Amino acid sequence: MNSRRQLGEFLQTRRSQLRPEDVGVATYGDRRRVPGLRREELALLAGVSASYYSRLEQGQAPNASPDVLDALARALRLDDAERRHLHELAAAGRRRGTVRRAVPERVSPATRQLVAVLGDVPVLVLGRHGDVLAWNAPGHALYAGHLAPEGPDTPRQRPNMARLVFLDAHTRDLYTDWPAKARGVVATLRMASGRHPDDPLLTALVGELTVKSPEFATMWADHRVKTGGDTVYEMRHPLVGAMRVTQQTLRTTDDQAVVVATTEPGSPSHSAMTLLVHSVLAGQASRRTRITS
Predict the structure, then answer these.
(1) What single DSSP character describes residue 1?
(2) Any idea what the Cα angle at residue 248 is, between residues 242 and 253, rounded to 5°?
(3) pTM for the whole structure
């Protein structure tokens, strides 16, 4: 991916989403051809020259200082995740572009221990572009019970959460508010594209989804970004019905995401999740009994 172009598109998109009245810019009733702030208005708010800001949007000013980027972030009213993404795009643009060899990601022993310890709650480990690197039995049953459980064990056959959300009918049906889930997936990929601009697998994934899913293409063009944290989803599981699930994301030192799904204790959602987990673990125990007998 071209980081300088991404930087310019990110700035332009955020600028178009700010109205003059939002930031105290007087318009005196003039007619505007495009929504949002003009380049010279944003440059004035950030304390940089209009010509320099224009070069930034055009990908022709690769050496923006951290102070200039922070000034632009304040003028654009970026949140912490968006500010970090802005700095990562600028840093990537300063580096000489190199194509990285695609190396399969691996889950560390410590992360595998964590997944094993959390055996009675659904857990996934996701790679930097959404590949499922590992899951426990409840995690497999909650998110992708229609797929083979051994899928994450073979790098070339690993499920990818972005592909599932946009291209898999079963996964789409899991989420009552599918557009909210889809926007979250795209925002996470956007953040990854700033951290790993030279990852060929990430570039290929974005290209594939852009071609195959008009919804993805539209959301990708919005340049929303998102880091970890907690997200609540209403899910409709084919085995246990409706659940309100809190998805908590923890990031490892390898830039992998450990996703843990929980429900509120004592709620109908908790009862449904307990039923799902117990049925999965009981099935595992039954299979082990048959194998050893």
Answers:
(1) -
(2) 150
(3) 0.82
> Kindly report the CA angle at 165 between 117 and 219, in degrees rounded to 5?
125
User: Which residues are within 8 A (CB) of 19 and not within 5 positions of it... i.e. 6 or more apart?
Assistant: 35, 36, 37
CB 8 within 8 A of CB 57: yes
The closest alpha carbon to 90, from 128, 57, 123, belongs to: 57
Q: Distance between CA 1 and CA 68 in Å, rounded?
A: 23
Alpha helices in the chain (DSSP H): 3-16, 39-46, 50-57, 66-76, 80-94, 109-117, 137-144, 161-167, 169-174, 178-195, 200-212, 214-220, 268-292
Provide the pLDDT confidence category of residue 182 given band limits of 50, 70 and 90. Answer: very high
CA 38/CA 203 separation, integer angstroms: 31
Question: pLDDT, tens digit, for every residue of 83-92?
Answer: 988 998 888 7
What amino acid is encoded at 19 in this protein?
R
Q: Distance between CA atoms of 58 and 97, rounded to whole angstroms?
A: 18
CA nearest to 255, candidates 209, 174, 193: 193
**Tokens, residue 151:** 């899928």
Q: How does the average pLDDT of the chain come out, rounded? A: 87
Tell me the C-alpha distance between 97 and 139, whole Å.
Answer: 37
Residue type, 137: A
123 within 8 A of 113, measured Cβ to Cβ: no
Residues 6 or more apart in contact with residue 96 via CB below 8 angstroms = none
Cβ-in-10-Å burial (0-12, 13-18, 19+) of 99 comes to exposed
> Could you count the other beta carbons within 10 Å of the beta carbon of residue 8?
21
